[in-house]
UniProtKB/TrEMBL annotation:
<keyword id="KW-0407">Ion channel</keyword>
<keyword id="KW-0813">Transport</keyword>
<dbReference type="GO" id="GO:0015459">
    <property type="term" value="F:potassium channel regulator activity"/>
</dbReference>
<keyword id="KW-0479">Metal-binding</keyword>
<keyword id="KW-1003">Cell membrane</keyword>
<dbReference type="GO" id="GO:0005509">
    <property type="term" value="F:calcium ion binding"/>
</dbReference>
<comment type="similarity">
    <text>Belongs to the recoverin family.</text>
</comment>
<feature type="domain" description="EF-hand">
    <location>
        <begin position="98"/>
        <end position="133"/>
    </location>
</feature>
<dbReference type="GO" id="GO:1901379">
    <property type="term" value="P:regulation of potassium ion transmembrane transport"/>
</dbReference>
<keyword id="KW-0851">Voltage-gated channel</keyword>
<dbReference type="InterPro" id="IPR028846">
    <property type="entry name" value="Recoverin"/>
</dbReference>
<protein>
    <recommendedName>
        <fullName>Kv channel-interacting protein 4</fullName>
    </recommendedName>
</protein>
<dbReference type="GO" id="GO:0005267">
    <property type="term" value="F:potassium channel activity"/>
</dbReference>
<dbReference type="InterPro" id="IPR011992">
    <property type="entry name" value="EF-hand-dom_pair"/>
</dbReference>
<keyword id="KW-0449">Lipoprotein</keyword>
<keyword id="KW-0406">Ion transport</keyword>
<keyword id="KW-0633">Potassium transport</keyword>
Length: 192
């Protein structure tokens, strides 16, 4: 199997888009990549293993839900397992893709049921998962309703035609226009 890893070996260049965060992002990706290689001699990872590998990054919080959503975003053919090819394809978008490609990937993550729209509930689920993962140590003064307030603000800005759902065009347009949304949503820091 070793040839396979070599074949798909990628150099984990730091993201040049978010310079200040690039080092920690790179480190996370390297750990995940190594974890994948070690845990999955078969070249395929299931959701449980993925969660275990992922929880190493956030020992202070509960990353179960976020890892679940992340797994579904990597599992592009939705067959319940992420192959090394799926994984490397996702990584290469996140590491070397254009902003547009990265936003597409993020949209897919937020669109939990993959129907092409992000609802307020979906955004809230992701946001709650992120807050859970960060843990109380990171945000000691976090209020219970913080994720909901966050979502309200983003949703108002993103749902341009006010039809209650965010389309890919609305998502990309508002993320590109508003750096604040992009930063606050931690799209690229937390996407993986
Ligand atoms: Ca798959
Ligand atoms: Ca959806
Ligand atoms: Ca809309």
């Amino acid at each position: 199997m070793r040839w396979k890893w070599l074949l798909y070996d990628i150099d984990l260049k730091p993201l040049n888009y978010w310079k200040p965060r690039a080092n920690s992002q790179r480190k996370k990706l390297q750990i995940l990549y190594r974890g994948f290689k070690n845990e999955c001699p078969s070249g395929v990872v299931n959701e449980e293993t993925f969660k275990e590998i992922y929880s190493q990054f956030f020992p202070q919080g509960d990353s179960t839900m976020y890892a679940h959503f992340l797994f579904n975003a990597f599992d592009t053919d939705h067959n319940g397992c992420v192959s090394f090819e799926d994984f490397v394809m996702g990584l290469s978008v996140l590491l070397r893709g254009t902003v547009h490609e990265k936003l597409n990937w993020a949209f897919n993550l937020y669109d939990i049921n993959k129907d092409g729209y992000i609802t307020k509930e979906e955004m809230l689920d992701i946001m709650k998962a992120i807050y859970d993962m960060m843990g109380k140590c990171t945000y000691p003064v976090l209020k219970e309703d913080a994720p909901r307030q966050h979502v309200e603000t983003f949703f108002q800005k993103m749902d341009k035609n006010k039809d209650g759902v965010v389309t890919i065009d609305e998502f990309i347009e508002s993320c590109q226009k508003d750096e604040n949304i992009m930063c606050s949503m931690k799209l690229f820091e937390n996407v993986i």
